[in-house]
Amino acid sequence: MEAVERRPFYLYSKPQITRNVEAYKEALEGLNSIIGYAIKANNNFLILQHLKNLGCGAVLVSGNELRLAIRAGFDPTRCIFNGNGKLLDDLVLAAQEGVFVNIDSEFDLDNIVSAARIAGKKVNVLLRINPDVDPQVHPYVATGNKNSKFGIRNEKLQWFLDAVKSYPDELKLVGAHCHLGSTITKVDIFRDAASIMVKFIDEIRAQGFDINYLNIGGGLGIDYYHTGTVLPTPRDLIDTVRELVLSRNLNLIIEPGRSLIANTCCLVNRVTGVKTNGTKNFIVIDGSMAELIRPSLYDSYQHIELVSPPSPDSAVSTFDVVGPVCESADFLGKDRDLPSPASGSGLVVHDAGAYCMSMASTYNLKMRPPEYWVDEDGSVAKIRHGETFEDHMRYFEGL
Ligand code: LLP
């Protein structure tokens, strides 16, 4: 397949996706729960169908993600619609389909009420609360602190409870939600947040609300560095909140994205050439920030390897691995110790399953790459066509 693709492509392991889901399912044994896969992490349609078949629900942040989830066959009553700027039309669809909706603000509550009226359906809502626990992650992926753009102002909790009470035909409060951030590597952070959340739930129940869902969001990190550091597993995460959930007889909703899909994939690239400028050595590849933007956007590390390791005696140098896009932000890795690769050889960027293809762009008219997966028996299948120049020109047809 590498021989036939003359462009970068994503390559997934289907069995690894299955194993990641199984790890969560085993961790959740003994609890009533929903694993809501965060579609934003990766929206490949075949991957979604696979996750649905494994029993996942879905976490959505737009009307189109909701449409996709429905087409992929997800049970809408195991789906959660999140977001600080949900649009009325999308909320109407959510209300019609019967998905859980998180209340994020005063205006969001108004829109959910309007959507319920338009759809003629009562909406099951959760209140998105900010536990204000520091997730200790890059500021761009921290969300659960009190200055974040997400969630309600906790001091106004009573206002929200009164508002919900005043719309008994439109809203049914069923739970509380929080999402602290992404790439979290310490489970204490989840436990601290869950303790705060159950106190809120106690307070809400004390007012006569029959709420039964605690949604602790997503956020578990993965071992991007490949240094052998032992990171918390789904079991560690669930075990740290298990007693709290059981003590209040709650259903637990979790919203993992990265920890289900990131480590199942790599971006396969081809080396165009090697060059040196000033004190810097560069490996120039055909992949770029257009296919995979995380290093450029968050300065994040994703492990890089050559596909065919050269002979053991080849000299290793320190390289920046860069793409052909016309700006210096276009790098996949900095200061990587690698043998000097021959032009045309393969180079992979690991852990590219989450927030890579779903954040790909067509910058510099590098069209979005194809995707493949490998199955248990070693067979490889294409699971998404690569975008073409003709696809691009179609946007202008008939104008
Ligand atoms: N639930 C909510 C409300 C979220 O905002 C997110 C992710 C998730 C669940 C899933 O979180 P996960 O388990 O994947 O950490 N583009 C960034 C990550 C942005 C995450 C946004 N929210 C990256 O490439 O690292």
TrEMBL record:
Q: In which pathway does it act?
A: Amino-acid biosynthesis; L-lysine biosynthesis via DAP pathway; L-lysine from DL-2,6-diaminopimelate: step 1/1
Asked if the keyword Plastid belongs to this entry, the reply reads no
Q: Which reaction does it catalyse?
A: meso-2,6-diaminopimelate + H(+) = L-lysine + CO2
Q: Which GO terms describe its cellular component?
A: chloroplast
One annotated GO molecular function? diaminopimelate decarboxylase activity
Q: Which cofactor does it need?
A: pyridoxal 5'-phosphate
- Assigned EC number: 4.1.1.20
Record-annotated Orn/DAP/Arg decarboxylase 2 C-terminal domain positions: 10-353
**Residue list for modification N6-(pyridoxal phosphate)lysine:** K40
Is Lyase among the key words of this record? yes
Q: Which GO terms describe its biological process?
A: lysine biosynthetic process via diaminopimelate
Q: Where is the Orn/DAP/Arg decarboxylase 2 N-terminal domain?
A: 16-262
Name assigned to this protein: diaminopimelate decarboxylase
Native source species: Lactuca saligna
